[in-house]
Amino acid sequence: MLNRRTFTVAAALGAAAIGAPLVHGQPKLEKSKISIAVGGKAAFYYLPLTISEQLGYFQAEGLEVEISDFAGGSRALQAVVGGSADVCSGAFEHTINLQAKNQYFQSFVLQGRAPQIAIGVSTKNMPAYGGVADLKGKKIGVSAPGSSTNMVANLVLSRGGLKASDVSYIGVGVAAGALTALRSGQIDAISNTDPVMTMLEQKGDVKIISDTRTLKGTQDVFGGLMPAACLYASSEFVQKHPNTCQALANAIVHGLKWLQTAGPGDIIKTVPETYLLGDRALYLASFDKVREAIATDGIVPADGPKTALNAIASFDPTVKADKIDLSKLYTNEFARRAKDRFKA
């Protein structure tokens, strides 16, 4: 027997179906219940995911999405590789690291066109900092070991003549715990995302030594456009669930389109209160800083994957650039369709 709520929903859906045929003849989803793993959802790095979730864009595509938040991208990646999540909202470069281990994963919609990661040294622990060599033997806080915050730190160290083994990496997350770790002197430097880095910078807690929160800063560090946050899944999942991947891409691109015109007040009203870390003004100052780093249409730029590969291969001996097939790292077909649909 239909209970009242089911009947009401069914009646509403029936009326909607009569009143308006399915948008673009939406094909049937192979899987409507989707679990997404993310590492540090409160960071601006994943703002498009949060916006699409909070504004109901996944539901509008017929998806029931469950988002599990982990301390960092490497933990979220483990959940997807291990099969406890279908899709990862994570860093593009993870698809490269996985392929180097003969595991094929594919990005299918881009959320960020710059890593939005800054590295700062503690003004309290290292007041006389003079260069990267001074970090030898120091403790560096990252969201989680193996995450993109760790990757950017490794790149900066290698350019300064240090190896990853010359420092100690400590996982501090991307929220209040990261602020506490730096301010209490538990770590000497930090590689993290916003709003954490802007909060530390504005209070004079850190001196920024490398910054990929802007497109120019990213160009300076990586020598080109560096695709960042994206939704990725195993190539097998993408092949078996094209309509589901299309629905996910649609929801994200819808969120990206909304973000293009959203004002500070709109952002504050949409994200959970805890994301503001107790300081609205600083949260909005951080948003202004990273706004241009957010993708506009979900499409991975043509030269982006090569930039990412060159960066990783420069310090990670397990990644051989000539052995990586760039074309298998991503597909833009879903994002292109979503872009056309939402005029992003």
Automatic annotation (TrEMBL):
This is ABC transporter substrate-binding protein. The keyword Signal applies. The lineage of its organism: Bacteria, Pseudomonadati, Pseudomonadota, Betaproteobacteria, Burkholderiales. SUPFAM superfamilies: Periplasmic binding protein-like II. InterPro entries: SsuA/THI5. Its main location: periplasm. It is found in: Periplasm. Belongs to the bacterial solute-binding protein SsuA/TauA family. Keywords: Signal. Residues 45-259 form the SsuA/THI5-like domain.
